[in-house]
């Protein structure tokens, strides 16, 4: 078996009038942190959402942990339990407390007892630095706190992979760091991560590989040293000069 | 998210300084006072006037028929509504089209016609279908007993009361379906995505994430429909079911006391619907404030 936990092969995807992905191929190794960046509309989020099939692809194949995600009759629910996803707008369940948000899927999907799930949730709240917010509802939390709870909720499933879809784009500047710190810890612990973001500081500190997407195509990839030091493509250089 | 404190202020306005007594007088809910007065007058009439007492005692058993028919039919319409409401947002084309066909057709027919149609067309159709199916079962060894029972079912065994309930539930199911659909669609798409990303299946996501949030949007209009159901249940008098309206008709032809009869019937309906609206207002206050 290949040691690539995610294999994306020549994937195409178009929405009504937009071609979001135009033949993207990308492999992610176990424990690797891959950072995807590019201008808006370049297909970064779409690519990420194809990995756990929140979007279906038109052509090509995606294999995650040995399972062909692009097959019609794949068992999506058990695959998705292994792939944590963190959203730009957090998507916490507003009718549940922070603790209940983290417990719900553990009970319903992992079939853990309430006590076990609560214990795991409490540990994760500790880990993201919010033990005192266990009984707070999402509406009582700041954006940064919501996103840290959302990360804890995903981690509670013991995923093999974590996908981050612009996790800090909806946050005030002073809250970005608290979320990035949690992500950095996760990267250090060896979690396989695919991160779509504009946070170049995070890429420099934690990414093993950076991938530049534009127009639904992989324009360039390389280590942070290569990308920041000497990007091969003029387009990458230009994009970086705008965001750095 | 709208600020709950702001929106909950509702009708109460804080008055700066002193309000002239004429303004205060003009702001009293006169309509409610008049209504209350009329109600008290009618209660007095029922107690003191023999004609009213007679009408009231004859008609009041219909109250329980009206209430029980409304509640049972409403509960069934909720089940129909939830199933077909999910159908209306389903990506499965068969389920979607069946649900949409039902909703569009039923909403285009007057309730009284639906009640008559169900009672005299659909119910007999179902019975004869049951008979035919039962005949087919007779030849199958382990289904023969069930088959015999199904063949023996007769249309006369289905009471008009049962047909009335079926008709109301069938008619209201379409409206409830639209309420469920709108309520579910009012929840952000990200909620379903987050639930599914955690590995929950569609029904778990609906049951534990979407519906608990949608219910606060759904409850007030459902309450309004229960009140509407109480009013529309008067239509089952066309099937000679002895509800409030039917007993009113019978009392009038029995005594020729038109005023007494219809004043009493009107009073009883209004007592139920006005109390119901108070209940709905309470629901709206309790659930109307955006996020917790």
For the largest interface, the chains and their residue counts are: A-B, 30 and 20 residues
Low-pLDDT windows of residues of chain A = none
| Overall pLDDT level of chain A | 94
Helix content of chain B: over 70%
Shape of chain A: globular
N- and C-termini, Cα separation of chain B: 10 Å
> Distance between the terminal alpha carbons of chain A, to the nearest Å?
39 Å
Count of extended strands of chain A: 10
**Secondary structure tally, helices of chain B:** 13
What is the number of strand segments of chain B?
A: 0
Give average pLDDT of chain B, whole number: 91
Content-based structural category of chain B: mainly alpha
Largest sheet data of chain B: none
Cα-atom Rg of chain B, whole angstroms?
25 Å
Instruction: Report the uncertain regions of chain B.
Output: 1-10
Question: Can you tag this structure with a few keywords?
Answer:
heterodimer; A: alpha/beta; six-stranded mixed β-sheet; four-stranded antiparallel β-sheet; 9 helices; 10 strands; 37% helix; B: 292 residues; 78% helix; flat
């Amino acid at each position: 078996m290949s040691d690539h936990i995610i294999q994306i092969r020549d994937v195409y995807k178009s929405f009504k009038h937009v071609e979001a992905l135009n033949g993207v191929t990308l492999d992610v190794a176990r424990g690797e942190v891959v950072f995807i960046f590019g201008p808006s509309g370049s297909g970064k989020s779409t690519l990420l959402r194809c990995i756990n099939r929140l979007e279906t692809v038109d052509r090509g194949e995606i294999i995650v942990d040995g399972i062909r995600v692009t097959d019609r009759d794949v068992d999506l629910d058990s695959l998705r339990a292994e792939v944590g996803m963190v959203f730009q707008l957090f998507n916490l369940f507003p009718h549940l407390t922070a603790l209940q948000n983290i417990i719900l899927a553990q009970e319903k999907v992992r079939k853990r007892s309430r006590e076990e799930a609560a214990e795991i949730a409490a540990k994760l709240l500790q880990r993201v630095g919010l033990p005192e917010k266990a009984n707070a509802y999402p509406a009582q939390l700041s954006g940064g706190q919501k996103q840290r709870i959302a990360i804890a909720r995903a981690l509670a499933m013991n995923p093999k992979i974590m996908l981050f879809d612009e996790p800090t784009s909806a946050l005030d500047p002073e809250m970005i760091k608290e979320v990035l710190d949690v992500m950095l810890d996760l990267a250090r612990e060896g979690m396989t991560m695919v991160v779509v973001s504009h946070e170049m500081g995070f890429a420099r500190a934690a990414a093993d590989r950076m991938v530049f997407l534009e127009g639904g195509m992989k324009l360039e990839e390389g280590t942070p040293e290569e990308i920041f030091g000497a990007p091969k493509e003029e387009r990458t250089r230009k994009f970086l000069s705008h965001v750095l | 998210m709208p600020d709950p404190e702001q929106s909950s202020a509702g009708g109460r306005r804080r008055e700066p300084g002193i309000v002239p007594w004429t303004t205060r007088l003009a702001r009293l809910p006169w309509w409610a006072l008049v209504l209350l007065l009329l109600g008290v007058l009618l209660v007095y009439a029922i107690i003191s006037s023999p004609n009213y007492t007679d009408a009231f005692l004859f008609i009041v058993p219909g109250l329980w028929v009206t209430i029980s028919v409304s509640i049972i039919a409403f509960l069934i319409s909720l089940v129909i509504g939830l199933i077909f409401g999910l159908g209306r947002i389903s990506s499965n084309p068969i389920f979607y089209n069946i649900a949409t066909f039902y909703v569009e057709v039923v909403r285009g027919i007057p309730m009284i016609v639906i009640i008559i149609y169900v009672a005299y067309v659909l119910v007999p159709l179902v019975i004869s279908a049951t008979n035919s199916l039962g005949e087919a079962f007779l030849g199958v060894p382990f289904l023969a007993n069930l088959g015999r029972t199904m063949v023996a079912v007769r249309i006369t065994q289905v009471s008009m009361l049962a047909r009335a309930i079926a008709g109301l539930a069938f008619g209201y199911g379409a409206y409830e379906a639209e309420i469920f659909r709108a309520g579910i669609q009012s929840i952000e798409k990200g909620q379903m995505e987050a639930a599914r990303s955690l590995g929950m299946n569609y029904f778990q996501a609906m049951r534990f994430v979407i519906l608990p949030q949608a219910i606060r949007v759904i409850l007030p209009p459902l309450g309004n429909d229960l009140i509407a159901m109480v009013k529309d249940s008067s239509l089952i008098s066309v099937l000679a079911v002895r509800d409030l309206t039917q007993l009113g008709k019978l009392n009038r032809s029995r005594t020729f006391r038109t005023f007494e009869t219809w004043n009493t019937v009107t009073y009883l309906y209004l007592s139920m619907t006005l109390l119901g609206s108070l209940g709905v207002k309470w629901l709206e206050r309790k659930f109307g404030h955006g996020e917790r």
